[in-house]
TrEMBL record:
One Gene Ontology molecular-function label: glyoxylate reductase (NADPH) activity
Residue intervals of the D-isomer specific 2-hydroxyacid dehydrogenase NAD-binding domain: 109-289
Keyword Hydrolase tagged: no
Classification via InterPro entries: D-isomer_2-hydroxyacid_DH (IPR050223), D-isomer_2_OHA_DH_cat_dom (IPR006139), D-isomer_DH_CS (IPR029753), D-isomer_DH_NAD-bd (IPR006140), NAD(P)-bd_dom_sf (IPR036291)
Record-linked PANTHER family: 2-HYDROXYACID DEHYDROGENASE YGL185C-RELATED, 2-HYDROXYACID DEHYDROGENASE-RELATED
Family to which the UniProt record says this protein belongs: Belongs to the D-isomer specific 2-hydroxyacid dehydrogenase family.
Organism placement in taxonomy: Bacteria, Bacillati, Actinomycetota, Actinomycetes, Cryptosporangiales
Xref: Pfam families: 2-Hacid_dh (PF00389), 2-Hacid_dh_C (PF02826)
Official protein name in the record: Glyoxylate reductase
Matching CDD domains: GDH (cd05301)
GO cellular component term of the entry, any: cytosol
Span of domain D-isomer specific 2-hydroxyacid dehydrogenase catalytic: 5-320
Keyword vocabulary terms for this entry: NAD, Oxidoreductase
Length: 321
């Protein structure tokens, strides 16, 4: 039976074609900053499915007496969705894990290297013609990533993919924190599981891959930053809310830690002015972990698969846990 599917923001045209080809009505909205909850609620009145993105706000109100049967978010993280309220309302929520693992892990390594080797400031110096001849005592000197110790906070799919790159590609020693022990990863990467405090104290690079929940919000704050080494680099490709930006900026300004590579921010697309004031100690990218053409197309296709499955009465491939 034909269903009504609301699409909150522009997506690959092939995705809309597939939904229409299956006989469904598609209402394609164009909300470049994401839909607030009241607008989602209005837009989904009488709709069966919602194809949404991480900037849409799907609070409990959205699911009250809703006609929706499925919300498919084109993202792995779903902290913007009240999944419990959805489940209580009988709405399936799906996400797009796996397909963005490699692209996001690649960006975590990119940020780590960019901070360690001062890539943005080097680029600026070359462009401004202020480099001069080769200098043995070049300042600022880089930090060696090869052979350094990497602390991974949250050893899920992306955390493991980072461990793989770091261990096999860069000979890094791998430490991790996770709710449960990951014996296979321990064997594969000679990884050691430690409590967060010890991981922070022993790592040269700390890379965040935990989901954003009430428990993990501001996991990196003044206290946890004070445990890190002065030569340490923080990398965040997970969610901005894992880090207190004010506390991180203070730690960077005071030299408490050496640098940070951040792809995600507490109030995207805004970045706290204190962080911007840190200059090249903070390498900043605009939430582009999954932004390769192949990956973004695969995410969208997977979200469409999930919608079509649920509308056909089949189990979805990627229900959120
Ligand atoms: C996700 O999928 O959660 C990423 O943050 C966006 O690509």
């Amino acid at each position: 039976m034909a269903a009504k599917i609301v699409v909150t923001q522009p997506v690959h045209p092939e995705a809309l074609d597939r939904l229409r080809a299956a006989g469904h009505e598609v209402v394609a909205l164009d909300s470049p900053r994401g839909l607030p909850a009241d607008e989602v609620r209005k837009a989904t009145d009488g709709a069966d499915a919602l194809l949404s993105q991480l900037t849409d706000r799907l609070t409990a109100d959205v699911f009250e007496k809703t006609s929706l049967r499925i919300v498919a978010t084109i993202a792995t993280g779903y902290d913007n969705i009240d999944a419990r309220a959805a489940s209580e309302a009988g709405v399936v929520v799906t996400h797009t894990p796996d397909v963005l693992t490699d692209a996001t892990a690649d960006l975590a390594m990119t940020l780590m290297l960019a901070v360690a080797r001062h890539i943005p400031e080097s680029d600026t110096t070359v462009r401004s013609g202020t480099t001069g001849p080769f200098r043995l005592l070049h300042e600022p000197m880089g930090i060696d990533i090869s052979g350094a110790t990497l602390g991974i906070v949250g050893l899920g799919r992306i955390g493991e993919a980072v461990a793989q790159r770091a261990h096999f590609g860069f000979g890094m020693k791998i430490l991790y924190t996770a709710r449960s022990q990951h014996s296979a990863a321990e064997e594969r990467f000679a990884a050691e599981r430690l409590p967060l405090e010890q991981l922070l104290a022993q790592s040269d690079v700390v890379s965040l891959h935990a989901p954003l929940t009430d428990e993990t919000r501001h996991l990196i704050n003044r206290e946890s930053l004070s445990l890190m080494r002065p030569n340490a680099i923080l990398v965040n490709t997970g969610r901005g809310g894992l880090v207190s930006e004010v506390d991180l900026a203070a730690a960077l300004q005071s030299g408490q830690i050496a640098g940070a590579g951040l792809d995600v921010f507490e109030n995207e697309p805004d970045v706290h002015p204190d962080l911007l004031a840190c200059g090249p100690r903070a390498v900043l990218t605009p939430h582009v972990g999954s932004a390769t053409a192949k990956t973004r197309a695969a995410m969208t296709a997977l979200a469409v698969d999930n919608i079509l499955a649920v509308l056909a009465g089949d189990p979805p491939r990627n229900p959120v846990p």
